Amino acid sequence: LSRIPSGVSFAEAAALPTAGYTAYQAVHRKLPLDRVNSLLIHAGAGGVGGFAVQLAKMAGKTVYTTASEHNHEYVRSLGADGVIDYRQEDVHTKIMEWTEGRGVDAVIDTVSRDNATASLDSIAYMGHIVYIAGAPDFTKVKPFTSVVSYHEVALAANHKAGREARKDLGMMGDAMLRFVADKKLSPMLKDTVAMEEVPAALERLSERHVNGKLVAVWK
Question: Given pLDDT bands bounded at 50, 70 and 90, which one contains residue 117?
């Protein structure tokens, strides 16, 4: 449990889990941030991606992300240094161009197993990939080459975790709520909907064209 601080609305607080905690775990629990300077975060306009972009930028990292063209200004407002239109541009080519052929230190994939697999080519030597929507095909990376480290994030796995892991969720919530209260983190609250509007809101989410978060409230 986390106490909502003064200045943060219930709707803003409700926008944080589960996407925000997933992003926090990906950035702050899985990656050795002292050895990560650049990241490719897929789907920066989405829930997990948007929070991850902000958290990585707050940590002082160079952040690249993918998004549809109409969301480029939005993800830049979250802190992205470079945005790739994955429908019109080759993501790997662009990353290698921006990193002068080196690749990024870490990838956070929120899209799919296939997308995570394709991202392996864009990771620098001794880099990392955090996957949320399916593990990449590890056989694509030959032994004794790029030496990539793999990290799974599955917040729902906490039902099998012990007390310390569950306590950590509260710590994540405390940290993110503090960031929101201090105006360091946007809760990305796109819209609030009444309970009877939830089915239509879920339909909007299923089309994957909503940036930010939708929160249902009693109106």
Answer: very high
CATH homologous superfamily for 19-156?
NAD(P)-binding Rossmann-like Domain (3.40.50.720)
More confident residue, 160 or 126: 126
Query: What is the C-alpha separation between 86 and 55, in angstroms, rounded?
Result: 22
Q: What are the residue boundaries of the structural domains of the chain, listed by start?
A: 19-156
Average pLDDT, the chain: 94
Tokens of 190: 């796109």
User: 128: closest CA among 21, 51, 32?
Assistant: 32
Q: CA–CA separation, 124 vs 62, rounded Å?
A: 14
Amino acid 67 reads A
Q: Whole-model pTM?
A: 0.94
Query: How does residue 163 score in pLDDT terms, banded at 50, 70 and 90?
Result: confident
**Position 179 confidence tier, pLDDT thresholds 50, 70, 90:** very high
Contacts of 170 (CB under 8 A, 6+ apart): 1, 2
Exposed (0-12), middle (13-18) or buried (19+): which is 151, by Cβ within 10 Å? middle
